[in-house]
Amino acid sequence: MTDVNAGGIAAYYDNLSRFLDFARRVGRGGGAQQGSAHRFLAGLPEETDADILGPERLDHLVLDAALAARLAANPRVVDAGCGLGGTIFYWKARAGGQYVGLTLSPEQRRRAEDEAQRRGLARDCSFLLRSYHAPLDPSYDAVIAIESLAHSADPHDAVANLSRALRPGGLFVIVDDMPAPHARPSFLAGFRSGWRVPVLLDVAGFHAALGAAGLTIVRETDLTERLRPRPLPWLRVLIAACGAMRALAPTPGMRDVLDALRGGFFLEALYRTKGMGYRLIVAAKP
Asked: For residues 265 and 259, what is the distance between their CA atoms, to the nearest angstrom?
């Protein structure tokens, strides 16, 4: 389970990273300009932080939840599924500390390291080509896993392994898509295929994995109402268009990108039909 190229997922991430960089250059971005490609979250009427938009809103909410759960000062943090490092750079600016990002993508690692160097943060922000199942030193104050455990072939084992990296009192912060019991099977299958999701845990599955790892849930927030999926008829058109283009795509890289886009539209369809939830969970190690 430690092979960083297992299942071709590394090449898939590489291709998506290159596509997001191209999209950023033509003004679309998909979060690449912030160094992350997290869900776009809308603000709520009672909130005053209107300047915190898109991917940065999620990083803001996740860090606030960790601080409320008594994140250690100047923490040592592992970001499991760090992408281009955006979450790490956001946490570093607000909370200080030292960070290690885990990714399977050489392209993501290269770009994250370049950005850390550009920001003068290379000493405190490092990036490793490593799976979630490879052992880590038990010396960390927090583990972050944002939209990443769904890509593990064995999320229960990944949670157990990453939990062992925590010091007593350390926090495990998870944000992920979690299916509802009535989710449409065709939408789920399209999402999982497009996004290379081998195992998709629901809320109960995450609770069980954290409990089996000896962690106690201390905060939990349903973020689903902040998502703004497109209307279902339009999503059906986009899904069909991506499928048609994929059939004609001449390269594996183009097929990966079209798979990812199609999987994202299936995910929006799941949210539009209330077949998926988006949840933030913070658990603590005794």
From this structure: 10
Task: Indicate the DSSP class of residue 225.
Answer: G
* Structure confidence by residue, pLDDT tens digits, 113-144: 999 999 999 999 999 999 999 999 999 999 99
| Pair 212, 156: CB distance under 8 Å | yes
Amino acid at 61: L
Angle between helices 252-272 and 185-194 (to 10 degrees): 150
Whole-angstrom distance, CA of residue 79 vs CA of residue 8: 21
Residue 140, strand partner residues = 166
Find the farthest-apart pair of alpha carbons in the chain and give their distance in angstroms, rounded.
54
Q: Which two tokens stand for residue 126?
A: 């490092």
Using DSSP's 3-state secondary structure scheme, residue 148 falls into coil
Domains of the chain (ranges; CATH) run 6-36+50-185+196-228+276-284 (3.40.50.150)
Q: For residues 59, 13, 29 and 177, what is the CA-based torsion angle, rounded to 10 degrees? A: -50
| Nearest Cα residue to 149 out of 199, 215, 185 | 199
pTM of the full structure: 0.90
pLDDT tens figures, 232-262: 999 999 999 999 999 999 988 889 889 989 9
Rounded to whole angstroms, the Cα distance separating 250 from 254 reads 7
Give the pairing of strands 140-146 and 166-179.
parallel
Question: How many angstroms separate the Cα of 107 from the Cα of each of 19, 20, 162, 168?
Answer: 11, 12, 23, 34
- Side-chain-side CA neighbours of residue 144 (13 Å): 31
pLDDT recorded at residue 7:
43
56's CB contacts (< 8 A; 6+ apart) are 34, 90
CB atoms within 10 A of CB 129: 15
> For residue 127, which phi and psi values (nearest 5 degrees)?
-135, 135
